[in-house]
Amino acid sequence: MDVVERYFAAFNAGDVNAMLAELSADVAHHVNEGEVRVGKASFEAFCTHMNICYRENLTDLVVLRDATGTRAGAEYIVNGTYLQSDAGLPEARGQTYRLPAGSFFDVKDGKITRITTYYNLADWTAQVS
């Protein structure tokens, strides 16, 4: 199992510390529809917020890597429950959703240095509204 697969396994286990262990100290986290967050502390704060508002599990995961091992991409389905209202989004009432998504990674010295995640916010909004 490589660094990206360990990252996703930790995500599905709800283990933020194990996710953090796969990241470089200066990781750049490009969030869908949001700002770039730099560093493990920013990533941890993001995860804490997400775990309050959402419960998610990823299925149908496919990870692709370049020949050098420095870049990877992943496609998956996000299976989630909207637990608590998130600022600027519809009210949470325990709605469930199923959403195709993808992430892209830069890897250096066995650590993830960049995570970029994409999903269709309009699709998610329609599912929870």
Q: How would you explain this protein's 3D organization?
A:
The structure is a single chain. The chain is of the alpha+beta class and 129 residues long. It has one domain (3-128): Nuclear Transport Factor 2, Chain: A. It has four helices and six strands. The chain has helices spanning 3-13, 16-21, 40-53, 121-128, and strands at 23-30, 36-38, 54-65, 71-82, 96-108, 111-119. It has a six-stranded mixed beta sheet with strand order 2-1-6-5-4-3. Strand 3 and strand 4 form a beta hairpin. The protein starts with a helix and ends with a helix. The mean pLDDT is 96.
Give me the secondary-structure topology.
Layout: H1 3-13, H2 16-21, E1 23-30, E2 36-38, H3 40-53, E3 54-65, E4 71-82, E5 96-108, E6 111-119, H4 121-128
Parallel strand pairs: 1-6
Antiparallel strand pairs: 1-2, 3-4, 4-5, 5-6
